[in-house]
Amino acid sequence: MQQNAPAAVVIGDALIDEIHDSGGVRELVGGAALNVAVGLRRLGVPTTLIAMVGDDEAGAHIREYLADHDVGLISSDAPLGSSRAVVQRDAGGEPTYVFNEAAQRRSIRYGDEARTALADADLAVISCFPFDVPAEVDAVAAALEGVRVAIDPNPRTGMLSDREEFVRGFERLVAGAAIVKVGADDAALLYDGDLDALRARLRSSGADAVLATAGKDGAILEADAGILTAPIATLPGPVIDTVGAGDATLSAVAEGLIGARPEAAEDWQKLLDRAMDVAAATCRAEGGLLRTPESLEDGERGVRGS
Question: How far from 201 is each of 174, 185, 226, 292, CA to CA, in Å?
Fold first, then answer.
């Protein structure tokens, strides 16, 4: 890694996706937080992932994948082994997930190594975190004291045990966040489905900026500089796989905040447009591994992840 460059720490999930589709069954390294960590590294940011990873075969695959992408790992104990999701796609290609017990009961701890990494980071990013477990929220809030934060609640139906508690835990960390990213799926699962109302709610709760993504309808970013919009980006080639588009968007937004403090509307618009470009490029290859328009032009497809 480049020494003394502004760094990021990502906190959340790392798992194995066991994919069942017309092509058979295959396993890919995945997890929303892991995708964001790898995505940030692919965008040139020194990155460390804090996640629960087991000392088992699945954990070995996760560690190897992170090492291949030059992402550091600070792992918490996993008494039930590594997390796993069985993924099945419907006729339209949309995935459904069934999580093992380890994923449903995931837990993250913050020892000296984790706290040092967070203190040294320019930005901490949280994605797919167990916000519905008060002890987990207490622990991460204490570890993040004084740290600049970006948050994506990214709830998963198969891991969500208490919707009201999840909302309380998530909103506890919103005040003062550098940016909060939410999507139409988050609004439907956690709130009343009104993405615009959710964006306003999070801003009024103290988020410095809120990015609301709505699939084919593009995205809206609201900050003190104003309300900015961007359509989905149009790139050559067909859309192959939308898995990972949200993680790629978060990676690109986070990369634009590291070592920078956007204030003017044009700065936020540039960040938003770049995020839409990266998301569109990621959709033009299978899996959740972040791509950029430049990498597609070079014919680079990389190691598949989900």
Answer: 10, 16, 16, 32
Instruction: Please state, in angstroms and rounded to a whole number, the distance separating the CA atoms of residues 274 and 276.
Output: 5
Phi, psi (degrees; rounded to nearest 5) at 265? -60, -40
Q: Tell me the residue length of the chain.
A: 306
> How far apart, in whole angstroms, are the C-alpha atoms of residue 64 and residue 305?
12
- Six-digit token string for 205: 């709760």
Q: Going residue by residue through the chain (306 aa), what tens digit of pLDDT does each one get? A: 445 678 999 999 999 998 887 778 889 999 999 999 999 999 999 999 999 999 999 999 999 999 999 999 999 999 999 999 998 876 666 678 899 999 999 999 999 999 999 999 999 999 999 999 999 999 999 999 999 999 999 999 889 999 999 999 999 999 999 999 999 999 999 998 999 999 999 999 999 999 999 988 999 999 999 999 999 998 888 888 887 899 999 999 999 999 999 999 999 999 999 999 999 999 988 778 999 998 887 765 443 333
Q: What's the pTM?
A: 0.93
